[in-house]
Amino acid sequence: xxxxxxxxxxxxSLPGAMAWGGLGHVTTGxxxxxxxxxxxxxxxxxxxxxxxxxxxxxxxxWADSIRYTKWGRFTSTxxxxxxxxxxxxxxxxxxxxxxxxxxxxxTALANYTEQSLDPSxxxxxxxQAAKFVIHFVGDLHQPLHNEDASKGGNGxxxxxxxxxxxxxxxxxxxxxxxxxxxxxPYPLAEKWSRDLIDEINDGIYxxxxxxxxxxxxxxxxxxxxxxxxxxxxxxxxxxxxxxxxEAIVGQELSGEYYENAAPILQKQVARAGYRMAAWLxxxxxxxxxxxxxxxxxxxxxxxxxxxxxxxxxxxDYFGEL
Length: 321
Ligand SMILES: *[C@@H]1O[C@H](CO)[C@@H](O)[C@H](O)[C@H]1NC(C)=O
Ligand SMILES: *[C@@H]1O[C@H](CO)[C@@H](O)[C@H](O)[C@H]1NC(C)=O
Hints:
- With 321 residues, the protein is mostly helical.
- It contains 13 helices and 2 strands.
- The structure holds 2-acetamido-2-deoxy-beta-D-glucopyranose (NAG) (2 copies).
């Protein structure tokens, strides 16, 4: 079955509850597309079927849009790792203890990195793998995707401007929305990315940006993802639950808590985008090497994903919202 890009892209532009979401993921996509090499950009534009500057930003939330569909259900535990630690006294991620048998964000990043390198896979599978990689690098940088307490804060009720929200939502969306003000998600994310790119190139992150890549070891995606996850999980003790998960219940977070959290969130988005670019450059270089020496059967371009079923399901799902 051959599918037009129009259909494939209509999938990513459906409205939905976009976790870390609209804004965080899309912004990391814009940042990464600024820092990737020219050859990575050319390769990914071709693979993802877009010549537009938002070729990465547009796919950064795709993994969230499929996770609640029947087809995508197998990915539902790939977006996080439930650190069974004890904030605020101790924060840590233990791979054996915390990664679910059905997979976690650590194994997912490794899995889809490997698939994106595999010349025996057809292009649509490598495209899908790249979209997962782009998304999971983002999730690894949201503190509450690296913490178990009350399902990553989903079960913790707090106040935001006097209204009830759960803490996970505050870190996914409310903090960024307050920082950026009102507007359409893509233009807001694009503007946010420009600010953060400036801070990386010539601003508050310039001196430290090289340290952001010290844990990156392309020969060991599991250890790399774990290092990023541990760094992020540490923020849970300091900024997410400075006085523990019980003390935060019912608290108003749009004031002082927000003032402390916003710079942390910004740095996490900047780091995610910068690391994503470095990771994708390594993927594309390695893929090209493997592809050049590949002697197996050439995969065809045929799009044999159960896509009709998926579109139908997504219409059902989003239709209900
Ligand atoms: C990458 O592309 C940009 C814009 O097309 C160009 O200005 C730049 O020289 C290129 N860089 C390299 C290393 O080829
Ligand atoms: C790896 O990816 C494949 C293809 O999407 C999936 O079926 C499998 O469950 C994944 N495995 C892990 C451990 O993430």
